[in-house]
Amino acid sequence: MGDQGEWQVRPSEARASGPAQTGDAGAEASTLANVHAGENARITRILFGALRSLCDDLGLRENQCFRCRAATPTMLVLEAEDGNIVSLARDWARFIRVEAAPEPSSPA
Q1: Which of 7, 37, 46, 69 can bridge 52 by disulfide, Cβ–Cβ 3.0-4.6 Å?
Q2: Is there a domain that residue 32 lies in?
């Protein structure tokens, strides 16, 4: 069976590193881990119950818009529309689906 100490990926199983395609033609599914500093996004789905509880404790919810204030290889700093600032590990962010959001409107 070959060397069991290494994982091998066949070319037919390899995927591009970009956002995965969803069932909707032309639509893309992206995760919070792919968001860069300065970008605005809206959380569309938090994939697991335990993560949903963590996000709820942090003040992050589905359908909420935010701006990524800073991004490192391991952490994200997010600012919600209400001004709440949250730090989240990218490992968790991989399981939060997002879509691009417009620039928040300035108070008049």
Answers
A1: 46
A2: yes
Q: Could you give the CA distance from residue 102 to residue 42 in angstroms, rounded to a whole number? A: 9
pTM for the model stands at 0.69
Count of domains for the chain = 1
Neighbours of 59 (CB within 10 A): 14
Q: Which domain holds residue 60?
A: 28-100
Per-residue pLDDT of the chain (108 residues; tens, 9 = 90+): 444 444 343 433 333 333 333 334 344 559 999 999 999 999 999 999 999 999 999 999 999 999 999 999 999 999 998 899 999 999 999 999 999 988 766 554
**CATH code at 70?**
2.30.30.90
Residue 10 lies in a domain: no
